[in-house]
Amino acid sequence: MMMNIPQLDVDLRLPPAKRWHALHPFAGQARQLLNQYLGDLGDFEQFHATIISYRDRYIQAEYAAELRAIAQLLDVSEEAALIVNLYYDLLKFVLGCTAFAADTEQGPLHARNLDWWTEMGLLSSATVVANFQGAAAGPFQVVSWPGFTGALSGLAPGRFAITLNAVLSNEPPTAAAPITYLIRSVFETASTFAEAVDRLASTAILSDCLLLITGIQPGEMVVIERTPTRSALRHPTNGRLIVTNDYLALQANPSSISAEQQLQQTSCGRFDRASLLLKQHTPRNAAECFSVLTDPAVCMTITAQHMVMSAAQGFLEVQLPAWFSR
Q1: Cα separation of 145 and 29, whole Å?
Q2: So where are the chain's domains?
Q3: Over the stretch 62-86, which tens digit does the pLDDT of each residue have?
């Protein structure tokens, strides 16, 4: 459904401790999200030393400083603020997602459903767009939530757009940076589509993922299929590229997933339906992209956000699912 999505301005030229002051009006929502995620992840106090050690070794110092400031703002522990921001890597089996890219005369369109379950649709009600200024490579936007400082979905106007989908392999996690902070770092420092693809494909990461990246020129679209240490690139066919939650290019020994897990159970069906719709009519604008994203066989009961982006045209539009009423 169409509605105004709250905006947060984040100035990276400020000291890290002052960058997220715009969170104050959203502190209640941030605490709700934090409490829900901590409930999902269970008792983490026994891992205090491990969590802090991981942060000090693999989280950029300025990102860690931001999290300390957010923890103080929310009156929670530093470990709690960090754990919530590592949620994807720790418990990604609750995430689905469908994304696609389509070439147009104005550059690639990048569309995505974020499928992520939370009690009472909290991820929908708490959706915000963080507008980052002062980055070395230029401004960018991230579709996010209060208290989350990494990136799952975002746009760098005039450069590229990136979205992340969940996937599971049998490859064990690697001691490396979390993917959500790698994506944010790429937004901050990568000047071109090619540079973004290279870094996202070659940098060691903590866990598996699928990344759709689109640029500003025709044909600039690729899916990077990742395990912690390996990658494969999947390129468009007939100006179209679709990703759900399966490896298609990378031989990655997919994990054995129980049948009830909606992530894997619906992946092929969503991929096939999106493929059919895009074959019947290639979207030429945001409205036609949203029509695909909201199709009953593409949208899921856990869909929290719909979004369409164009790096070439410099726009990002976010809609919340039809069932949601703020």
Answers
A1: 9
A2: 7-90, 92-319
A3: 999 999 999 999 999 888 888 888 8
